[in-house]
């Protein structure tokens, strides 16, 4: 498919999705034009389904999430505020770093942040960016095709080069972008509009589609492989607070408790101040090969597991407990 064909198809799907908004979300008969948006709750009256999806999303939790509060030192790290409580993206401009807002921060990355359009006339009623033009609707949506572009997501999500990673991948060449994976059409049907839960690294089911763990015996050693099969970017990406770890332990006789996990490898992009830690992300469509050369492993066989963490730190770094502190992505066994 050529780039021109992809553009035509994209515009057609955008128009279908826009038409669907009329069908899926009804406008109250008595609704009046909205003069200003002081809160995203204003959107709920007409867009209850979308609003409910957003409320369940990490975008809605971006300011109040306990992990975010802890890792940002309760936002004493002011750089974090820009993306966790941003001013409207269309106000600061596509391609520019977002700026922080000073109000409604508890609403996080909200409807207003993504949809409110700037106005040269402060006395004019508010207008929002959408997938169609409808001057008679309370929010008077106007078509804004930038909403569907990776550059729109990039103002926050390329802080750690996620969009740059995507552009270097086969997914970019295939025309598969951010929305295809993170805001897919509901039930795969463009007429139902896009899913506003914006599933990502907090959704374990989605994480499990990103990678594949394998392990085999090769002569006098056991080899484990992790392949990035489904992420359109490096694994894990975007948040330096995230990490993925490969552990192994010897198999034991039936009924016996297995020993402690032994750490084999970590995937992570470190914070800027962690100058002694290398970047070990797994690029899209690439495979990492790891060898387990251990007498216990060769004698008994092994269990290999990949765990995912939303925090890079272990309570006891010398004896990490992934079963308690992390989430299991995949596990495999190699028999004796």
Task: Walk me through this protein's architecture.
With 336 residues, the protein is α+β, with helices and mostly antiparallel strands. The protein is 27% helix and 17% strand. It has 13 helices and nine strands. It has helices at 3-24, 48-55, 66-71, 81-84, 89-92, 111-115, 150-157, 162-167, 170-174, 178-182, 204-210, 295-300, 322-325; strands at 129-130, 142-143, 211-218, 221-228, 243-250, 262-267, 287-292, 302-309, 327-334. It has a four-stranded antiparallel sheet with strand order 6-5-8-9. Strands 3-4-7 form a three-stranded antiparallel sheet. Strands 1-2 form a two-stranded parallel sheet. A hairpin with a 2-residue loop joins strand 3 (211-218) and strand 4 (221-228). The termini are far apart. 32% of the residues are buried. Residues 2-27 have low confidence and may be disordered.
In short:
The chain has helices spanning 3-24, 48-55, 66-71, 81-84, 89-92, 111-115, 150-157, 162-167, 170-174, 178-182, 204-210, 295-300, 322-325; strands at 129-130, 142-143, 211-218, 221-228, 243-250, 262-267, 287-292, 302-309, 327-334.
Record the strand order, biggest sheet: 6-5-8-9
Shape: elongated
Percent of residues in β-strands: 15-25%
The largest sheet is: 4 strands, antiparallel
Assign the structural class, choosing from mainly alpha, mainly beta, alpha/beta, alpha+beta, or little secondary structure.
alpha+beta
Low-confidence stretches: 2-27
The averaged pLDDT comes out at 88
Order of helices and strands: HHHHHHEEHHHHHEEEEEHEHE
Number of helices: 13
Fraction of helical residues: 25-40%
Oligomer: single chain
Please give the alpha-carbon distance between the first and last residues.
Answer: 48 Å
Total number of beta strands: 9
Return Rg in Å.
23 Å
């Amino acid at each position: 498919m050529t780039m021109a064909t992809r553009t035509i198809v994209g515009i057609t799907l955008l128009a279908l999705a826009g038409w669907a908004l009329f069908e899926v979300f009804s406008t109250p008969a008595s609704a009046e034009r909205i003069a200003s948006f002081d809160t995203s709750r204003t959107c709920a009256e007409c867009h209850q389904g979308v609003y409910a999806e957003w409320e369940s999303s990490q975008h809605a939790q971006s300011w109040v999430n306990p992990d975010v509060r802890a890792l940002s030192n309760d936002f004493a790290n002011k750089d974090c505020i820009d993306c966790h409580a941003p001013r409207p993206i269309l106000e600061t401009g596509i391609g520019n770093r977002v700026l922080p807002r000073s109000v409604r921060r508890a609403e996080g990355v909200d409807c207003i942040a993504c949809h409110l359009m700037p106005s040269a006339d402060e006395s004019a009623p508010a207008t929002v960016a959408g997938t169609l033009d409808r001057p008679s609707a309370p929010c008077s949506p106007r078509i804004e095709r930038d909403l569907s572009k990776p550059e729109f997501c990039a103002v926050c999500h390329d802080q750690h080069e996620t969009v740059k990673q995507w552009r270097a991948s086969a997914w970019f060449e295939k025309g598969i972008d951010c929305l295809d994976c993170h805001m897919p059409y509901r039930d795969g049907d463009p007429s139902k509009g896009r899913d506003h839960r914006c599933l990502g690294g907090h959704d374990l089911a989605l994480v499990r589609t990103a990678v594949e763990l394998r392990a085999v015996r090769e002569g006098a050693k056991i080899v484990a492989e992790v392949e990035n099969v489904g992420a359109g970017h490096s694994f894990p990406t975007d948040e330096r607070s995230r990490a993925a770890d490969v552990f192994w332990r010897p198999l034991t006789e039936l009924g016996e408790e297995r020993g402690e996990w032994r750490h084999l490898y970590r995937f992570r992009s470190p914070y800027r101040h962690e100058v002694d830690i290398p970047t070990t992300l797994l690029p899209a469509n690439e495979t990492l090969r790891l060898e387990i050369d251990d007498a216990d492993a060769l004698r008994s066989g092994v269990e290999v597991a990949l765990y995912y963490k939303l925090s890079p730190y272990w309570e006891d770094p010398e004896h990490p407990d992934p079963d308690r502190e992390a989430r299991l992505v995949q596990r495999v066994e190699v028999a004796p």
